[in-house]
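[job 4471] stage=fold_predict status=RUNNING
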Amino acid sequence: MKTKLNAIASALFLLLAPAAMAADVAVITLENGTNVRLKDDFTWEYIITETVAQPAAAIQTPTATAAATALAEPTTSAVNTADAKMAVDTTNAKPAVVATEAPMATTRLTASAMAQPELLGNTAKEGITITLANTQWKGDKLGLIFNFDSTNDEHVTVVNVEASFFNDQGGLIKTETLEAWEAIFRMPETYLRKGQHRQSSVLWVEGINKQQWQQKLISLKIVEIESR
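[job 4471] inference complete, writing structure tokens
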């Protein structure tokens, strides 16, 4: 499957070469219903998230609240005819005006990604492949351990990853940038070299509810690579 996608990406790059400024050149749908975004640098990525509009929330203004209270409370006494007329007039108050908030958009996993969680937890860029290897908890802190594989010709010293965490219903919890790999200055044995398979240290993340993260739904994206 991946070999076929790489071939398609290469063919489209040649056809669309004049539009070199565009990062995305096409979106295709695989037989299993998964959408894939092809890029002009011969790479591709699964489209695993979508934006969903939430219903607008209605808010009752103070004026509307006062009018509603006047309608609900009966007049208990009237000193004279004029007071009685005034009490009756309060029942003719105009309908309450309700203000409405603008709809809010939220990010969530697509149905295809929820049905195929194996699409998550890994990413690749410039010959560096990262895969979620293991997780652990220390109190309310989530520990992440990543596997690294390199075909990059350079000696990689830093890899920063954007990690997006989703709850068991597919809703986005948070997105955080992690320094997944960091070599030690003047210690070449800590560099990530071509052909190596290495594992990261434990990276601790806060703000994840353990009870809502039983499925371990995480999306990874390499945002920075440094080498020497």
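[job 4471] summary: Residues 10-22, 75-88 have pLDDT under 50 and may be disordered.
[job 4471] exit 0
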